[in-house]
Specification:
By secondary structure, the chain is of the alpha+beta class. Helix content is about 25%, strand content about 25%.
């Protein structure tokens, strides 16, 4: 079995820069976040709230331009030893802004507005399917950097898994160090009896960037955070295929939740 392809870049951003990101993100109403994985507050890159923060904050704008770039895609490919000529970086979800988060729409919109919203959602899915189909992308895979800003607290965990099929180059950017047991990233391998063995543990550090290639054997998880006095702030994302093709995965079957970015 091939080993997991990953790399760690420390000080991808400075401690001061990371602190500014957290401070400015604290202005976002926590009701705008979606709660997942026990105790993780999730805000997608295409959400109105995060897009507003990127527009209004020089710090967040600078980070967004840094990671949502051809240069960052090239860096990831170089570090993982894969050919960047296989990919074409595009923007689709991150430029189709909604007027509010999905969970607020049902509560606040009229029936007429809900119908209009659902029709728009269906129309955009159809456009995505046609625009990024293999017919119009014969030589390169169209990929978009879809990510989230997340805040994890006491009880957060993520069981060992492989990321969804359309995720190709995955990254984690930690913004702070945590005072807790657990909360570290574990890379694992599956044994013949289907148990998982931990092969490396990576602790969150401010400015630490972890990049890995999403292959069949790219198993990873996060231990339960216990006895924590602070939150774990981080970005998780991936250069994601918009035509559902990942050349590094043979055993497909895990759908990507594109609805989180609509």
């Amino acid at each position: 079995m091939n080993s997991i392809k990953y790399t760690i870049i420390d000080d991808f951003i400075s401690l001061d820069f990371a602190n500014k990101l957290i401070k400015e993100a604290n202005e976002i109403d926590q009701d705008s976040f979606v709660k997942i994985h026990g105790n993780r507050l999730f805000l997608s890159s295409s959400s109105q709230e995060l897009q507003n923060l990127i527009s209004n904050s020089q710090t967040w704008k600078q980070l967004f331009l840094k990671i949502n770039s051809q240069e960052f895609l090239n860096l990831c490919c170089l570090k993982l030893g894969i050919d960047n000529k296989n990919f074409k970086k595009v923007d689709f979800f991150n430029i189709n802004k909604q007027q509010s988060s999905g969970k607020k729409i049902i509560k606040e919109l009229s029936i007429k507005q809900i119908i209009k919203y659902l029709f728009t959602k269906f129309y955009k899915r159809l456009i995505k399917k046609i625009k990024f189909s293999k017919i119009f992308n014969l030589n390169k895979i169209p990929v978009e950097l879809l990510f989230d800003y997340s805040i994890a607290g006491e009880g957060y965990y993520n069981e060992v898994h492989r990321d969804s099929d359309s995720r190709i180059i995955v990254f984690l950017l930690y913004l702070n160090k945590i005072d807790s047991n657990g909360g570290s990233l574990n890379f694992c391998e599956k044994s013949q009896n289907h148990n998982f063995k931990n092969i490396n543990t990576i602790n969150p550090q401010p400015g630490r960037l972890v990049i890995f290639l999403n292959q069949d054997n790219s198993y990873h998880g996060v231990d339960v955070m216990k006895n924590t006095q602070n939150k774990r702030h981080f970005l998780y994302g991936a250069f994601t295929s918009l035509n559902h093709e990942n050349p590094y995965i043979k055993n497909k079957g895990i759908k990507t939740e594109f609805n989180l970015y609509e």
